[in-house]
Amino acid sequence: MSMLSACTVKCNEVAGSTDTEISWFSSLSVSCHGRIVKVPEGPLIRVEETEVVIPCNVSQYGGPNEQNFDWEFSKNLGQDSKFVHILSTWDPWFMSPEYQDRVNRGEIMLRRKSNSAVEFVIGNIRPTDQGIYRCTTPSTDSVVQGNYNDVVEVKVIADGLTVTGSNFYSSSTWNVSEGDTFQLRCSASTNSTEHTHLQVSWEFKSNHVWQEILSLTHEGKFRTGSDYSDRYISGDVRLDAMANDIYSLSLSQALPTDQGTYRCRVSEWVKGADGSWQKIQEKTADIVNLVVKPTSLEVFITRSNISLMERESLELTCNITTDRSGIFQTEITWYFNESPDGTMAEAQVLLNADHDLVISDSTFISPSHVDRSNYNLLMRDVGTEHSGYYYCQAALWVPQHNGSWHKVAEKISVPVTVEVVTLEPNYYVFLNASKTPLFAEDPTELECRIMEVQNTETNVRFTVSWYYRMPTRSDEVVEYELLATMDADWTLVLGEKSKQRAQNGEIIFSKPKVDTFRLRIQWTSETDRGEYYCVISSWSRQRNNSWIKIKDVASMPVSILWSTQDYTLTVEAVKLKPFFMAGHTFEMTCKVSSQNIKTPRYSVLITAMKSLSDRTRSNGTTRIISLNQDSVVRREDWTDQDRVDGVVLEKIQENEFRYRMYQTQISDAGLYRCEVTAWSPGGGGRWRKAVDGFSNPIQIDFQTSGPVFNVSVHSDSPTIYRGDLVNLLCIITIETTVLDPDDMSFDVSWFATRSFAMDKEPVFLASLDRKGIVIQARRNGSSDLSLERISPMEYRLRVHGCEDHDFGNHFCLVTPWVRSAAGVWQQEKEIKSKAILVTVKMDDPCVGDRKVSIQKGPLYRVRGTHITIWCNVSGYQKSEKPNFEWSTYQLSAPQREMKIISTGDSGFSYAFYSRRVESGEIYIEKIKEDSVLLHITDLKEIDAGVYECYTPNTEDVYLGTYSAKTNISVIPDTLSVTMKSQVLMQNEGDSLDLICQVLVATVQHTHISVAWYVIPEGKDRNAQKILSLSKDNILLPGPSYTERFNAGDIRLVKIGDTEYKFSITKLQHSDQGKLYWEAVEWIQDPDGTWKDIVQKQTNTVSLTIKRLGKLFLNSCFWHFIKTMYSSS
């Protein structure tokens, strides 16, 4: 007998065995290929009057997906044990009478978790419930194999856990001052008969939510709540186990956020048979309601609107009042701001004096401590830079048990205005042109002098700025341009107009005397004509050796003009030999004359305009050869390799030039010109362009009786399908003359215009020259080209594997070469064929209509998020509804198909995915009859891979495509958004700044969008968007905040790589509530759309707004009462 047969027999015997025998065979059944019923390993120790949950599941079974379960109970597992029926999922009469009442009350029940799993629940276990519990699954298998029941022992122990806390406190409410230390106590003990451990947790409730502070776990480890980690590390939060089962919680530096209710939570744990710890019961004790009283602090400066002269001393007194007594220290900080609208972040710290040391940015600033309420600031030798707004900020610090200090209150005063007045020097400025040009290129010199200076001291310095404006009509307005300006340290800053020329030495700025500044233009040009003026600035040296501008005085403008005449240039071309034939030398001269140009030099360019379009230049003109003003010759676009030295340009007189072209050919026919540029010497040995001129055209026209060539294009099938081959023939014919094929040769080029109307630029495809060399253009698609000569007068172009972009009008260009009787090859005129239209059809008639499309990948999605993939089908018979089947090929096994889910087969899923499909974690949403979405609600790393969408065929034949694939890449969640949790109290009209940090480390390129929300006060109020910054950096206000955003009262700015600042000015009472921040990470899919892949929110900030109107009415009311009392 084989091992498999033996196993089958043993499993069959189990089906007819007694209860005891079934239990004995349970160990054997694990090795059989059959059903497995499983309950937890016992004994299960549970406390009296608590809830007990025993799970039971079955696997490797046959028959229907949904299995049934029977539960029974016995006092012991001996040979004579008897099991009593309790509950069944399929037989309502299965229950024994003694359990009827408890089941009807819901104290005992069954909870189905899946088709193959249930939970047996006893809501209030009793000592009499202690014993053996058996879970049985009725057989649905075709062959009885495996085990069909499993048992577990439950032990019930008495409740020995005691938790108290109220005995330590005389009142349920405690009052502490901000910054103080307080200690809470809780008593917890157990007298359980089993070996159990206790876990003690301290919890805090504010805003109706309990949160963990610090716990001593059942394994003897400390665990902190998320909001208390930093305070635990710094030693401000401690949990101590004391004598007599006392557990104390100590908090140092009480904060306003510590106000709320505190309780002690104690749980009892026991170690199970599998070695894991299980919580068997839990109790709590409310300890105390804590009230944290904030420290009151008022700060103001005793003086206001101060005006004093430069070099005098400034003295300010900061007065503070507080309700705090005992030991504390005061920290005083003095600030300065130049603008009343400046923020504290922009303000300069003048002096900071705390309980340890004094920090100042100047030796001229010193503090003094009058008494505990008054602090003086003394600034000696003030300057105009000290004019502005002064603030005093006070902070109160209290000592802690570890010797450190804690800040309990802080406030800043209203600013005081200080104005420092200085004496301005008196002077005026005179601008004189010491040198004026008579002609272009002459020098120009301007002197700017300071005249009649009064009220100056040794610490005053003068600098200059130069300005220019071009000549204008009386009714025209033209702005002045800055040529150069001088800083207080005499650093010259050049304007755009003069920067390059000054660096080249063409413009010189200098100071020849103490009271004189000079501007010199070495070689004055036409662009320098216009008006000039200078500005003299006076600067005063400050105490820190910096300079401040105190006055600007401008001169009257001076005009720099001279009489000019327009440049003229005349060029005449002459053909020296009026009649000649191909092969002879062409020769022409160009004579140049000019007027009003000082010592001119000429540069010459020879151009030709051919009778047919020359592709060398877009306008049909070819640049042949040039000679510059320094007589340097350069060949331009002359590319005839057989006549490399066939063109010559030379200067035969100062104003005459000669052009020669040797061994002319018929292709040289056209119009030839001289393009001449006149140059005059400029500054620094450089040449300056004066004027251009063009000669009359000289025509080369050959009178020949030679052969006449024609060219045409032909194709048997210019309309083809994608992937086909197209043949195009370029056919050359000859008229009037019969030539030997050995005396003819051709250069053939193919071009295509990608349009019907020939309205686009031709695209070069390939060429075959007379020497047999083939040149092909670079191609982007998968199609290919070949070009060959198939007869002396025929050339064939083939396009293999045609694609859509091979469509267009195709033509060939032919350049004939003819050998003369003397054996010399002559190039004939280029001829162009008419175009033939090649069209590429989209579909092959052998390809079916059906097409399956899927969302283009790769799709990058974040682990743990909800993703979707779309798939649709077209071209199917509408009478049949299409079904969709989804499969995947995982990265670990890319060749193995794993079936996920189907719209037409409920048993389609592999076991690997069936549980996720049954639980709804993976499902298909039908958008339309021919379109679906695959949903994965909790993406896992193992989900990465290739996904295939398949639509089974519904026709008699297979035509088209039936599946499509895409790929998913699972990336980690790197987005984090943090903000300091706090409770804020502000007055109406105040300003509020909140800073949030967003960190992301995604490898792929992503964008971030951020938004601020507020949850208004009141029940069931929905969050309202205040302001957002989109992924495209566009600010979008919420509907209720549009008007305030447009007024600039609400702002959101990015202040660093990871930080964003949200600001509200002029707070309103409607802003009150809980504020939080939301960040969304976006990625761009291959189809160009942006997808939000992860979203995070911060904790909330509680904002309370005090109404100023109520305070005003109360003040008026008390003033009224006081007046009435005095009058009585």
Automatic annotation (TrEMBL):
As for subcellular location, the record says: Membrane
User: Tell me, what's a Pfam family for it?
Assistant: V-set
Q: What InterPro entries does the annotation carry?
A: Ig-like_dom, Ig-like_dom_sf, Ig-like_fold, Ig_sub, Ig_V-set, IgSF_V-set/TM_domain
- List the PANTHER family: PROSTAGLANDIN F2 RECEPTOR NEGATIVE REGULATOR, V-SET AND TRANSMEMBRANE DOMAIN-CONTAINING PROTEIN
Q: Tell me the keywords, alphabetical order.
A: Disulfide bond, Immunoglobulin domain, Membrane, Receptor, Repeat, Signal, Transmembrane, Transmembrane helix
The primary site where this protein sits is: membrane
Note whether Transmembrane occurs among the keywords.
yes
Q: How is this protein situated with respect to the membrane?
A: Single-pass type I membrane protein
SUPFAM superfamilies in UniProt: Immunoglobulin
Determine the domain of life of the protein's source.
Eukaryota
Q: Which GO terms describe its cellular component?
A: membrane
Q: Which residues form the Ig-like domain?
A: 40-136, 138-281, 294-413, 425-546, 707-832, 845-969
What's the protein called, per UniProt? Prostaglandin F2 receptor negative regulator
